[in-house]
Amino acid sequence: MQIAHLNFSDNPLFLAPMEDVTNPNFRMLCKRYGADMVYTEFISADALIRSVSRTEQKLTINEGERPVAIQLYGKDPVAMAEAAQIAESAHPDIIDINFGCPVKKVAGKGAGAGLLRDVPRMLAITKAVKDAVKTPVTVKTRLGWDDSSKIIVDLAERLQDEGIAALSIHGRTRAQMYKGDADWTLIGEVKNNPRMHIPIIGNGDVTTPERAKECFDKYGVDAVMVGRASIGQPWIFKEMKHYLQTGELMSPMTFQEKMEIIKEQVLKSVEWLDERRGVLHIRRHLAATPVFKGISHFKETRIAMLRAATVAELFAIFDQIEKLIGDNQAPI
């Protein structure tokens, strides 16, 4: 599969852009475990133009994580074009436009998925960004605003006409937010539309190796994008890759192996931010990880873990958990 100048092996897996999740450290981990392309957190065009330091920090790219896409969102074509030029100075492999974020503070202000109610503006933004940069431009969007306006089949053609290099589709409407099941039937319809010739990337509810394979086999997509399922378990890409290549589930990693990865995430998060913010940031991964699933009488330990304010406190709790599990535990 090819996106512009980028060549990928069969059945590539992409790390979805996620706010407060896909910082450089997490992207590097996912890359280590098999992600074929990674995306930054989404970046506000307006904040980037105003040189907001925290926003500019999101442009940081490590060579080891390539290929990497910088994702931008905004509602004004001129501002988006200017932001794209700023983003291009960070030398991403792809500039991706977010037309899919459903949260109120974005979509409610006419950006992200809000543009599904203003397709002419969406197309104007796409054209403005495409004309402003030499870096390949891609788009990520949803099926439509709600069940009565699932416009993705026609929209995909119109976005392709603006010259995008690939299209990622999340199989929900904006109204669904992240609730209900992702509907891949329309993603498959876009992919199988004979008028479409750019790569189609499917996204939504890809949580297991078996589901990743089903999405490739049943819907014919060119790549599968993994989002929330990677939070707290970046090794999921390794498990999916193994299954896609062999048709068999990978031997489970041990509890200790997974704990070492979690500890590395903690230390890298603190290094990236500072101790207070880094420990706070990692709580989302600790809350989501399946590593602690099935440990009996874990509720109080879990609460303490999610309240820990320093690395020392957190690692002391990890030590208690590891002693509880023991050195000769079966893989979890």
- Put simply, the count of helices is 14
Classified by CATH, the class of the largest domain is: Alpha Beta
Query: Largest sheet, if any?
Result: 8 strands, parallel, barrel
Supply the CATH superfamily name of the largest domain. Aldolase class I
**CATH domain fold name of the largest domain:** TIM Barrel
Number of domains: 2
CATH architecture of the largest domain: Alpha-Beta Barrel
List unreliable stretches of 5+ residues.
none
State the secondary-structure class.
alpha/beta
Q: Globular, elongated, flat, extended or rod-shaped: what is the shape?
A: globular
**Order of strands side by side in the largest beta sheet?**
3-4-5-6-7-8-9-10
E-strand count: 10
Query: What is the percent of helical residues?
Result: 40-55%
- Beta-sheet strand percentage? 5-15%
Helix and strand string, N-terminal first? EEEHEHHEHEHHEHEHEHEHHHHH
Gyration radius, in Å: 20 Å
Beginning-to-end CA distance, first to last residue: 34 Å
Mean pLDDT: 94
